[in-house]
Amino acid sequence: MTKSRIPCAAFAVAISLCGLASLAHAAQCGNGPGGFEGWKQQFAGEARAKGIGGAGISALEQTTYAGATIAADRSLHSFKLSLDQFMVKRGAAAIVARGRSMKQKNAALFASIQQRYGVPPGPLIAIWGMETGFGSQRGNQNMLSSIATLAYDCRRPEYFTDQLYAALKLIDRGTLSGSQRGSMHGEIGQTQFLPKTMLEYGVGNLESSSGALSSTANFLKAHGWRAGAGYQPGEPNFAAIQEWNAASVYQQAIAVMGRQIDGGE
Fold first, then answer.
1. Under a CB-based contact definition with an 8 Å cutoff, are residues 148 and 195 in contact?
2. Helix axes 209-222, 107-117, angle to 10 degrees
């Protein structure tokens, strides 16, 4: 009996599918530290193919699995609070009180930003206070390890893969270094930009107040902020605040604190 043979065309298709399967398993996500080193080497190969240079690849190879980042990512409970509870937990009264003082102290900077971007001081100061306590709490995690870990983790790999590529591009440009410190999810600077946002909207040095606040205003303007329009829920500029952070309670808190800092009740 003659053995059956796979026709040449079918064989070619089979080889092609095998190749696609191999690509599909490249840089496979994981849910623990065990596969991180293997993933990292696979991702480095993909990054080289996408044009990431030696500086970025070298920095990627030095990253380590950030267990603290994963723990923080699994415990974002404050966004489930009511608005009043959230405001108390985040120290809104203290942010508003100090924010009014910062507005007066930096009046020339805020006037310049408002003239250029159309964004008043209130929401910028509220974001500044909420994100880092006006620059005092920027985080002490290795930025690249945090983002690489989240790109590897199976919870949101696509989102953080984009962030990782952006970080590697910024390292290649010399804008960031592999030793850059940031918060648990890799946010950096006084208003906590992720690398892709920094790449697209960053203005100057995000570690400085002027650079961070200008970049934040640039982000809001790029997301539809209209000079002179309101920014409370239901008003035109609230949509731009919604683009800054996806959590509804955070969005509302920024609007409330911003209004109070700008002189409202």
1. no
2. 20
The span from the CA of 135 to the CA of 145, in Å, is 22
Q: Where are the beta strands (DSSP E) in the chain?
A: 141-142, 181-182
At 193 the three-state DSSP class reads: strand
Q: Can you tell me the distance from the alpha carbon of 213 to that of 233, in angstroms, rounded to the nearest whole number? A: 22
- Looking at residue 88, its amino acid is V
What does the DSSP assignment read for 65-88?
--HHHHHHHT--GGGGS-HHHHHH
Whose tokens are 């952070």? That residue is 245
| Half-sphere exposure at residue 95, Cβ-oriented, CA atoms within 13 angstroms | 31
**Strand locations in 111-240 (E):** 141-142, 181-182
From residue 86, alpha-carbon distances to 57, 250, 253 in Å are: 40, 8, 8
Among candidates 166, 202, 132, 156, which has minimal Cα distance to 59? Answer: 166
| pLDDT tens sequence for the chain (265 residues) | 333 333 333 334 433 444 443 344 457 999 999 999 999 999 999 999 999 999 999 999 999 999 999 999 888 666 788 999 999 999 999 999 999 999 999 999 999 999 999 999 999 999 999 999 999 999 999 999 999 999 999 999 999 999 999 999 999 999 999 999 999 999 999 999 999 999 999 999 999 999 999 999 999 999 999 999 999 999 999 999 999 999 999 999 999 999 999 986 5
Considering the entire predicted model, what is its pTM? 0.86
